[in-house]
Design brief:
Largest sheet: 8 strands, mixed
Helix content: 10-25%
Radius of gyration: 15 Å
Number of helices: 3
Number of strands: 8
Oligomer: single chain
Strand order of the largest sheet: 2-3-4-1-5-8-7-6
Length: about 140
């Protein structure tokens, strides 16, 4: 794993939260995006070499809605950038980690993503992500 790529924060109100994080981080939100397959709207901020991703549910039965219902707003996941997501998934599987995806899926911010079950990582949802390279 190369570096922490972003920290994902579950929020109830994306617009309100964008305003809060623009003030907090002293920078503008550089991108908003809907990820229909995950029933989520996202907003991204750059802070140094890292990013913060805000996530708002677009459906009451989505993973983010369930997370907020159970735990409230807050840190949802930590994402790590990798060079080869398939190789990293294979390595993690060999090491005994339970992956929540059998294959990488399209995520936000031009990434392919896979999640590691939090029961294997001391209760922290880990995302591994790889930049999609266009030919």
């Amino acid at each position: 794993m190369k570096k922490i790529e972003h920290i994902g924060i579950a929020v109830k109100d994306l617009n309100r939260s964008i305003a809060i994080y623009e003030k907090l981080l002293n920078t503008d939100c550089y991108k908003t995006e809907q990820v229909a397959s995950e029933f989520v709207n996202t907003a991204f901020f750059k802070t140094g070499e890292n990013k913060v991703e805000l996530l708002q549910a677009t459906a009451p039965d989505s993973a983010i809605a369930k997370f907020i219902e159970k735990k409230g707003e807050g840190i949802h996941h930590i994402a790590f950038l990798v060079d080869d997501i398939l190789a990293e998934m294979e390595r993690l599987h060999r090491e005994g980690f339970v992956l929540l995806n059998e294959s990488p899926k399209k995520g936000a911010d031009n990434k392919m993503v896979c999640f590691v079950h939090p029961k294997d990582t001391n209760g922290v949802l880990i995302e591994i992500c790889q930049e999609i390279k266009w030919v």
